[in-house]
């Protein structure tokens, strides 16, 4: 975003005119005025010294935008973490995933700073948390001390940095939130410990038709281009682009920072066509409650299939997450003639470093003539998919007679000719908002679409088939869902994993062969050869379960108990490893002479270790360790506590 536009945006936000989205702020209420006082906060790691980041606000992560900074800690744990400003502990938590050990400090200015993935808290906070864990006999805990119970001055050590929770390596997760719990960009508070003069980088640009009449290079297909950087620093597309109708841009690009090899999210995107701004995006501030909207703002289908995270550079249908300033068609491009149109995409970071991609879209005729030759459809190849409210049917053809397809709705057929040709395929398009065919006949081959119902967002609704049903809340969907369903023995497929949900749907399923022993049999989501436990509750031969992801669900029985192995059971310490092959660890419990003992848990390694309430008192008597998986299987280990450390046996290498 150019200099004037960037400062216009900041003024727009600070003036309270920037609406932050219905999901995060009830009723679309206006955001409070934001300010960024320089010097109010000090850097929480190695203040005054050069630092670097592993992540920034707005990075594209799995199912969410990253909410703050990931500050590097020299690839080790145990660095002092300092209070960024005077404040009191508003919340402290211990989590097996997520932020792990985390502290929330509330400050006199009404804002909150968050410190995640900590190794340990400082005393007296650490002792109080441990006492509460023993009182409630739980490792995972959320606590809200009384205001002023634990206070810190600016620069006091509040904890040591670590690698707890869902972190992929040692670092400190650091956030700044306003009084309404919206995430702010910490880099705007003027931390001199971070320097950056490196501009962002383009990776891929995708252009896609946005309705049934749109085309890109003559096709109803998303087309991916790779930008090339020129010697003058600008970026271009190496291939020509032509289009007609309404099209949208998806972008893979990332920020870079001087001295690191990490990739960071973009702060700002601005798109102009023929000199007129059509789209601008600024992730300066966004609501905590809306992070899951991320799945609607990226190309979720491509992300699920390939792992690539394309950000949509237009406002998608069903969006309630307002980070945009757009044209009359929500940031999309309207190519309504056969002229050449210049498009500029400008990306920038928090330090106003920027890069610019410039390319031309040549308008196509809106109704290009189909090939003059005759063709015959090959009935052995018929493919169906749904894109942009459109059913796409592709059939391979030979050149002998006019191809056609018959679309059936409840037994009534309608004959159609191709809308276009793609390579050796005839392509037939149907607007699903007008009609939903249940099958298509091409040549002698009939394929089912498995389309069941059109489900609108914002309305509670349900669908019931003979052996399965789906209930949706008014918050379940981002956008209209063309519900598809197919049962295959003890598996149920609902749409595909590339369809994003905003919230849970509720499913019932009666498998073809219900298990005799249901107490260890549950629903798993099948994904890339892996089974992910969802659970469920049996009601006769029917099982009910909830899911926030679509795809294939299978009934699986888990009768194998979890693994448990002790490496130390001394009077000073208890250590070991736990794990489970299918459903996963649900809980674990250690008792010494009938008294509960706190076991900390690193779920990434499956490592458990004891923490005494009173370090001066040795463990005495019998240790009982019970580990239970989510299917209800348990493993119980009993042993006497000794002064020995069980060390792994060393194996001698054979000489050859």
Automatic annotation (TrEMBL):
GO molecular function: metalloendopeptidase activity
Residue ranges of every copy of the M23ase beta-sheet core domain listed in the record: 65-122
One Pfam family here: Peptidase_M23
InterPro entries named in the record: Cell_wall_metabolism_enzyme, Dup_hybrid_motif, M23ase_b-sheet_dom
This protein's name: Peptidase M23-like protein
Organism per entry: Dyadobacter jiangsuensis
Upper classification of the organism: Bacteria, Pseudomonadati, Bacteroidota, Cytophagia, Cytophagales
């Amino acid at each position: 975003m150019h200099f004037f536009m960037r400062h216009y945006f900041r003024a727009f936000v600070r003036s309270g005119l920037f609406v932050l989205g219905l999901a995060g702020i009830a009723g679309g209420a206006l955001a409070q005025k934001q300010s960024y006082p320089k010097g109010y906060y000090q850097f929480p790691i190695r203040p005054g010294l050069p630092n670097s980041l592993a992540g920034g606000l707005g990075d594209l992560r799995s199912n969410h935008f990253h909410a703050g900074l990931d500050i590097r800690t020299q690839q080790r744990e145990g660095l002092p973490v300092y209070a960024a400003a005077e404040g009191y502990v508003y919340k402290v938590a211990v989590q097996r995933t997520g932020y792990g050990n985390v502290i929330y400090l509330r400050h006199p200015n009404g804002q909150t700073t968050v410190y995640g993935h900590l190794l340990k808290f400082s005393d007296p906070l650490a002792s109080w948390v441990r006492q509460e864990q023993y009182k409630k006999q739980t490792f995972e805990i959320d606590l809200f001390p009384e205001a002023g119970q634990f206070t810190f001055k600016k620069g006091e050590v509040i904890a040591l940095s670590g690698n707890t929770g869902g972190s992929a390596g040692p670092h400190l997760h650091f956030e700044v939130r306003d009084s309404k719990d919206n995430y702010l960009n910490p880099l705007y508070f003027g931390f001199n410990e971070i320097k950056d003069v490196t501009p962002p980088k383009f990776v891929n640009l995708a252009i896609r038709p946005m309705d049934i009449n749109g085309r890109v290079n003559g096709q109803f297909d998303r087309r991916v281009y790779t930008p090339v950087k020129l010697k003058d620093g600008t970026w271009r597309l190496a291939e020509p682009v032509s289009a007609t109708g309404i099209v949208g841009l998806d972008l893979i690009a990332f920020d870079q920072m001087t001295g690191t090899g990490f990739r960071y999210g973009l702060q700002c995107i601005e798109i102009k066509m023929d000199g007129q701004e059509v789209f601008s995006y600024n992730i300066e501030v966004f609501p905590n409650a809306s992070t899951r909207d991320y799945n609607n703002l990226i190309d979720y289908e491509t992300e699920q299939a390939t792992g690539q995270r394309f950000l949509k550079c237009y406002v998608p249908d069903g969006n309630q997450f307002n980070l945009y300033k757009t044209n009359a068609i929500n940031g999309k491009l309207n190519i309504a003639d056969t002229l050449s149109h210049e498009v500029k995409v400008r990306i920038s970071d928090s330090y106003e470093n920027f890069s610019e991609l410039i390319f031309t879209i040549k308008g196509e005729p809106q109704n290009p003539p189909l090939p003059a030759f005759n063709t015959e459809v090959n009935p052995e190849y018929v493919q169906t998919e749904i894109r942009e409210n459109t059913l796409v049917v592709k059939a391979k053809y030979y050149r002998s007679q006019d191809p056609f397809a018959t679309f059936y709705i409840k037994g009534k057929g309608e004959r159609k000719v191709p809308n276009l040709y793609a390579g050796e395929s005839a392509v037939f398009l149907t607007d699903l908002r007008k009609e939903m065919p249940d099958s298509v006949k091409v040549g002698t081959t009939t394929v089912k679409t498995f389309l069941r119902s059109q489900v609108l967002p914002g309305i509670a609704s349900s669908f019931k088939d003979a052996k399965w049903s789906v209930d949706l809340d008014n918050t379940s969907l981002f956008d209209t869902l063309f519900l598809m369903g197919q049962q295959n023995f003890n598996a149920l497929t609902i749409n595909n994993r590339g369809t994003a949900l905003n919230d849970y749907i509720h499913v019932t399923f009666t498998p073809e062969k219900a298990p005799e022993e249901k107490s260890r049999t549950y629903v798993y989501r099948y994904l890339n050869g892996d089974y992910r436990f969802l659970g469920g509750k049996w009601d006769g031969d029917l099982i009910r379960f909830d899911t926030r992801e679509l795809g294939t669900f299978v009934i699986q029985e888990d009768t194998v108990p979890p693994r448990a192995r002790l490496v130390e059971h001394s009077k000073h310490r208890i250590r070991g490893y736990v794990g489970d092959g299918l459903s996963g660890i649900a809980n674990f419990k250690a008792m010494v002479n009938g008294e509960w003992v706190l076991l900390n848990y690193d779920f990434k390694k499956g490592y458990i270790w004891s923490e005494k309430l009173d370090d001066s008192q040795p463990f005495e008597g019998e240790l009982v360790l019970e580990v239970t998986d989510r299917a209800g299987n348990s493993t119980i280990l009993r042993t006497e506590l000794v002064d020995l450390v069980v060390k792994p046996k060393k194996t001698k290498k054979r000489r050859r």
